[in-house]
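Please, structure for the following, as C-alpha cells.
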Amino acid sequence: MSYLDKLLEGVFVEWKSLEELGVFYGGLTGKSKSDFADGNAKFITYMNVFSNISVNTDIATFVKIGENERQNKVEYGDVLFTSSSETPEECGMSSVMTTKTDEEFYLNSFCFGYRLNDKNLFLPDFLKYLFRDNKIRKLISQTANGVTRYNVSKARFAKISIPIPPLEIQQKIVAILDTFSELTAELTAELTAELTARKQQYSYYREALLSFEEGEVEWKSLGEVGELIRGNGLPKSDFTETGVPAIHYGQIYTYYGTHTTATKSFVSPETAKKLRKVNTGDVVITNTSENLEDVGKSVVYLGKETAVTGGHATIFKPSERIIGKFFAYYTQTSMFAKKKAKYAKGTKVIDVSANDLAKIIFPVPPVEEQKRIVSILDKFDTLTNSISEGLPKEIGLRQKQYEYYRDMLLTFPKDNLEI
C-alpha cells in the first residue's frame, strides 16, 4: 500500500464539481495608468497568480477602487485563476488567498476568482496544492479555447470535479507537502547559488581568455574574416511541424545557447526556397531587439542539414581564419557590447545593421589558439547552460521529484476524471 492508501484506509472521499461547491467571480476592468498612481486597495495581477502558489499582502500593488467595484473583493480561502494566455497550459494557473487580513484585495481583468459556498470543506493550504496538481492542471487547460490567444471557458471549468477528503487528511497532506516544499526550495536555492557562482566564474574566464592587447594578436573587422548576409522574411506563421530546419531571430535570445545541432522550428521546402541558407559552421546573429543586450547575440549552427533564417538576423559565414564558435563567444563579452553600442540605432526597437556589424573590430588569434580557447569555454558553457547536463538539470530533477510526490499525495480514488 502507498502512503496515501494507508492514510485513506477506511475513509470515504467524496467528489463534487466546482459548480456544486462554489461560485466564480471576475476581475476588475477598465483600469488606466492613473488608477495605479494613487491606489486605495491591493491589486493582484496575472503574474502574481501565475508565479505564486499562494498570494499575500506582500506581492500585490495598489489600485484605485470605486465604491461600485467593491463587490468582487478577494476573500481568505478564495482560489484565483489566470483566465487568458498565449498557451492553454498557462490558462487557469492558480493561486490561493491563504492570508487572513483586513486589507482589501482585487483581481485584474486577466484573472477570475472562485469562492466556496462552504469554506469549512477545505483548508486554503490544501487547495493551493490541489489546483497545482498535474492531473487537475491538465483538466483545467482543456477548458481553454483559442488560436493565438487562449481563454478559459468558465462553463466547462465549472464541470471539473475535485476530491473532498476530511480536514484531518488535508492537514496531514499539507504538513508533508509544506515540508517537502521547504526542502526543495532550500536545495534549489543552494543549486541556484552554485549555478550563479559558476556563471560568474564562466564570465570571468571568458572575459580573460578573449582579452588581448594591441600587437598581441591580429585585429580584423568582421567583414575581413568572413561574409555577412542579411536574412529576409520568416514570420512565425510560416513555421511547420516538420520540414527544413529554421532559426528565427527571436529564438536566438530566448531559446538557443552558444551553438546548436538542431533547430526548434521548421518551414516547408517551398518557404525555404525564399529564405537565406545557413550551413554547418555558420553563425546567425540578431540585428534587432527591444534592448541593446540582445542585439548582436549569436548562435553557431552545427547541424548536418542546411537550415534557413529570416529577417532581423544576419548570417556570418566565417573564412578559414576564424572559428565560428570563437566569434560567438566573443559576442558575449563586455568588449563586444561596447563596440556594438556605437552602431546601435533606435529607441523602442534597437537595430545594428549587417553593414555596421561588418565594421566591428575584434581579435583574431591563430586558429590553434582559437581552438584552445573554445575548448575551455565549451566546458564552462556545458556546465552552466546545458539543459541536459550540469546544475540546471539537477535543479530540474529536484522540481520534478517534488511534483511527483505532490501528485502522488493528491491522487484520490475516482473512476473518471473527465470533464
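Confidence is low (pLDDT under 50) at residues 415-419. The chain has three domains: 15-164, 166-212+366-419, 214-364.
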